[in-house]
Specification:
heterotrimer; A alpha+beta; B alpha/beta; C mainly beta; A: alpha+beta; FAD/NAD(P)-binding domain; D-Amino Acid Oxidase, Chain A, domain 2; eight-stranded mixed sheet; four-stranded antiparallel sheet; 28% helix; 26% strand; B: alpha/beta; Arc Repressor Mutant, subunit A; 3 domains; five-stranded parallel sheet; 15 helices; iron-sulfur cluster binding (chain C); 2Fe-2S_ferredoxin-like_sf (chain C); 2Fe-2S-bd_N (chain C)
Chain lengths: 368, 459, 105
């Protein structure tokens, strides 16, 4: 059985669906090949942060790209709600990073100043010591030595974002297949031939690899280096709470339904099972930051695998050997969603107005 | 404190295993959620006097409870296991405090739960599973007042007979279609199952003698609350519609293994097509895909109390051998009579599974039915999502939040799978089981935090 | 709604000698029974309102699997009533919607 498409996108996660939406809006015929229900899916294990502070402190292009993304989110949310009736619960009221270690707090302060420089001081942020923090957030735990606050930070409901993107794609004429992973992709004729694990073949003029960790074995088939690795993040989800938590932080957030999520760990492993040590650490962190969370019940833990490049910044790569093949990978697919659905499509099309994404070329790793 | 063997669940399997293991020289910790040992089938048997109306089978559980009085067995009641950590051991909670029990071997004997029976109105006060009424009879000396029993299966007849004996007969028995004639070829050729069959017929005779209205082939269940808080129960039998009122509507459509703990450990599971449920994949001793983890009793596949006792003892023998306390010859010699008992106990199972297989309407109920009770997601929403791409449990869960409430899908997974199967024309066996994460029962942040070294201790 | 209890006592059942409070109203329980059983003996009405739609629920499975019997006991919200033994002096409140966060501990 075979199918034809103008552009085939491998991967139906948030990244792949955003790219699909962007290309469809530019008039292209798009087919998204999504994997199996049980596949590793970073789109289903993340916090939904729309986050700026700290991003690209050591790499100005990423700081700028993240800044543009955060600014573009409100219009993007409007565009999606114009296409589908889903409440994304986008909230951009600012976010905190809390610190229980004075050295880490100080180091992050330096990072923020560097980031601000990279953004020509368009980044506003505050550094708060415990006393200032306690005045602003009276429930803050004694062990929090300081915090940074950035008014541009926010969050969105990531599961509903994924669902909305999917519905928006379908409403825009994108075809989506699922239930089987693509196992091979190769140049064929003027385009590409893709084969999935059931033997189904697809031909496409262009192919965009948005397969998350799948890029590790699919990328080399198109001669991409795709130097990505898995990094586990664990989190815990609590019972619903009627009160509104008076803050958003990168490690503690309240979902719009009312439950709290506690997370933000990083472990260099490709195993997506939760661990006792991390669960204990997360619980201790939560209770240290906001002691009145102590008697909240955890309903379940979760773990998912981030898709990490060596420097942690995205890869946007046009294939030199196979024109028409593209690699897109990042670990902040939620924050960057608006740009993936607009500017990246311009870049894939080679539009003169497209952004210059040289800084995210994978050849930057050639010397490492 | 470390033990050679931690057993989770003090039902017939767990109790039988504890005794065999302790007599064999192992130190055994027996963790159980309830205040008293007995599991569900022998619930509260240790405390009950003068409840002969519950039947002779129930009373036999008393001996198993007494068997726990052995120096090698530490029974921890009111212990809720929420995670099994391969390195650290079994993590459990009681009175707001969690404990870690390291164990060289683990036996999971957490038994069964009733198969959820979703239909419009099943979430209303006044509707309960038949097993819940049985628990109230056993533990609280309460009997249903003006109840209707609905569904099918041996437990339904047992509860009816127990209610009759307690002077509170059901006002009607509304039985869903059974396939008894179809199942007849599955009766054991030898008459091992005869005593049980006779007992079953005895129950049926008692129900008939009590003159209880008995409807057969019932379908299209629907419940509503009346103005005075009673239940109006509508159903059809063939082309006829019925509307009955009662104080309590009890339903039952069989039991399924509780597999949250085994799934949370990543053990291999398989689909049992006859029972319509997933169970862990086990060898003949009950060993799971993890060499030091065993499963016994209904949690490994429905078989009833006598089968559970035998399986518990068999698992204990295998664990004794694994622990070097019993050589293979001794293990096999002692296993022989247990295997015969197990075979007898299971002889009726193929017949029962076939005779009381679940009508498909309860696996894929009408659109207005609330399927996920915790998140209040209807069958109609699930069908729609399945038709627009949510073709698996995980995608359905992230689309509609089914299974994200505190019960972790225990009440809804069966029907969610049934609805996806119907919408995508795929068999249920390809759609599960869902992945389960710990804690398998809710536990507070403070309790989890207290399990690690406290921050002050690390400085 | 204060529907009458849907249960009555079995022959030979022990007297209900423990006094509990349910939303300010006295409720009796017998030693050894769960809070859920005592609530069911007391009345047939809802013992909680769901956080999603406010629908009325009452204890269902009686064995800790369904989480429909959640109540607040002695100030602790979202406790499964079927898993807790009734004790003299317990203060029970129906669980109305999602719980609130406690005050600073």
């Amino acid at each position: 059985m075979s199918a034809q498409a103008g552009t085939a996108i491998i991967g139906g996660g948030i990244v792949g669906l955003c790219v699909a939406l962007g290309l469809a809006a530019r008039g292209h015929e798009v087919l998204v090949l999504d994997g199996r229900d049980g596949d590793m899916r970073a789109s289903q294990g993340n916090f939904g942060l729309v986050w700026l502070q700290g991003k690209g402190a050591g790499y100005a292009p990423y700081a700028r790209w993240s800044f543009q993304a955060v600014q573009a989110w409100p219009d993007f949310a409007k565009r999606l709600s114009g296409l589908v009736d889903v409440d994304l619960a986008l909230c951009q009221q600012g976010g905190y990073e809390f610190f229980t270690d004075a050295a880490e707090y100080e180091a992050f302060g330096h990072d923020l100043h560097r980031q601000a420089n990279a953004l020509d001081d368009r980044l506003s942020f505050e550094l708060l010591n415990h006393a200032d923090l306690a005045a602003r957030l009276p429930g803050i735990g004694q062990r929090v030595v300081g915090a940074s606050f950035c008014p541009l930070d926010g969050h969105v409901n990531p599961l509903r974002l994924h669902f909305a993107l999917r519905q928006a794609c379908l409403a825009s004429g994108v075809r989506i297949t699922g239930g089987a992973s693509v196992v091979s992709v190769r140049p064929a004729g003027a385009g590409f031939a893709l084969l999935d694990e059931t033997g189904r073949q697809t031909r496409a003029s262009r192919v965009v690899l948005c397969a998350g960790l799948g890029a590790a074995h699919l990328g080399p088939q198109l001669e991409f280096r795709a130097p990505i690795r898995a990094q586990r993040g664990e989190l815990m989800i609590t019972e619903r709470v009627a009160d509104r938590l008076p803050f958003l932080s990168s490690t503690i957030r309240q979902v719009d339904e009312g439950g709290l999520q506690i997370g933000g760990t990083k472990a260099e492993t490709d195993c997506d099972t939760e661990t006792t040590t991390t669960m204990v650490g997360l619980a201790q962190h939560a209770v240290a930051v906001w002691p009145r969370l102590a008697d909240l019940r955890v309903l379940r833990s979760w773990a998912a695998l981030r898709v990490m490049t060596p420097d942690g910044y995205p890869i946007y790569q046009r294939s030199a050997d196979h024109p028409g093949a593209f690699l897109v990978t990042c670990h902040s697919g939620v924050t960057l969603a608006p740009l993936h659905a607009t500017r990246l499509a311009e870049w894939i099309d080679g539009d003169p107005a497209a952004p210059d994404l040289e800084a995210f070329d994978e050849r930057r790793f050639a010397l490492s | 404190m470390s033990a050679d063997l931690v057993i989770i669940g003090a039902g017939p399997a767990g109790m039988a295993a504890a005794r065999v293991a302790a007599e064999g020289g192992l130190s055994v910790t027996l963790l159980d959620e309830q205040e008293r040992a007995g599991g569900q089938i022998y619930r509260n048997v240790g405390a009950v006097a003068g409840r002969g109306w519950l039947g002779a089978d129930y009373a036999r559980g008393g001996a198993l409870v007494q068997g726990l009085d052995h120096p090698g067995i530490t029974h921890q009641p009111r212990a809720t296991v929420w995670r099994i950590d391969a390195r650290r051991g079994v993590i459990w909670s009681r009175d707001g405090q969690s404990h870690v029990s390291p164990a060289a071997h683990v036996l999971i004997a957490t038994g069964a739960q009733e198969r959820p029976v979703p239909f419009p109105g099943w979430t209303l006060p006044g509707l309960m599973p038949a097993g819940a009424a049985q628990i109230l009879m056993k533990q609280s000396g309460m009997v249903p007042d003006e109840a209707i029993l609905s569904g099918a299966g041996p437990l339904l007849y047992l509860v009816a007979a127990q209610m009759i004996a307690a002077g509170a007969p059901p006002v009607a028995l509304v039985e869903t279609p059974t396939a008894i004639t179809h199942a007849l070829p599955k009766l054991p050729r030898a008459l091992f199952g005869l005593p049980t069959l006779i007992k079953g017929l005895g129950l049926i005779a008692r129900i008939r003698a009590a003159g209880i209205p008995w409807y057969r082939g019932a379908a299209d269940f629907r419940a509503e609350t009346t103005e005075d808080g009673r239940i109006r129960f509508d159903f059809t039998t063939g082309k006829q519609s019925h509307s009955l009122t009662c104080g309590l509507l009890l339903t039952h459509l069989g039991v399924i293994p509780q597999s949250h703990l085994t799934r949370s450990m990543g053990l291999a599971h398989e689909y049992d097509a006859e029972q319509g449920a997933w169970r862990p994949t086990l060898d003949p001793w009950g060993q799971s895909s993890e060499p030091h983890v065993f499963v016994a009793g209904d949690g490994g596949g429905i078989g009833g109390a006598e089968a559970a006792r035998a399986k518990g003892a068999l698992a204990a023998l295998a664990i004794l051998h694994q622990a070097g306390k019993l050589d293979a010859a001794g293990r096999d010699r002692r296993a022989a009579p247990l295997r015969r008992a197990l075979s007898r106990a299971l002889s009726l199972r193929p017949f029962l599974d076939a005779a009381y297989s679940v009508p498909s309407a309860f696996l894929a109920p009408p659109d207005e039915t609330i399927v996920c009770r915790c998140e209040e997601v209807t069958a109609g929403s699930i069908r729609k999502a399945a038709c627009t791409g949510a073709e698996g449990l995980r995608l359905m869960r992230t689309s509609l939040r089914t299974g994200m409430g505190p019960c972790q899908g225990r009440m809804c997974e069966t029907a969610v799978i049934g609805l996806i199967a119907e919408a995508t024309d795929r068999p249920a066996s390809t759609l599960g089981p869902g992945r389960i994460r710990t804690p398998v029962k809710p536990v507070t942040l403070a309790e989890i935090a207290a399990l690690g070294p406290q921050p002050e201790e690390t400085t | 709604m204060n529907a009458a209890s849907r249960f009555r006592d079995a022959p030979g059942a022990a007297p209900r000698s423990l006094r509990l409070m349910l939303d300010g109203v006295p409720v009796l329980a017998r030693p050894g029974e769960s809070v859920a059983a005592a609530l069911l003996a007391h009345s047939g009405g809802a013992t909680r309102q769901t956080p999603v739609t406010g629908a009325g629920r009452a204890p269902y499975c009686m064995m800790g699997v369904c989480f429909d019997c959640l109540v607040t006991i002695d100030g602790h919200p979202n406790v499964q009533a079927c898993m807790v033994s009734a004790r003299e002096g317990m203060v029970i409140q129906r669980q109305i919607g999602a719980r609130r966060l406690g005050d600073q501990p």
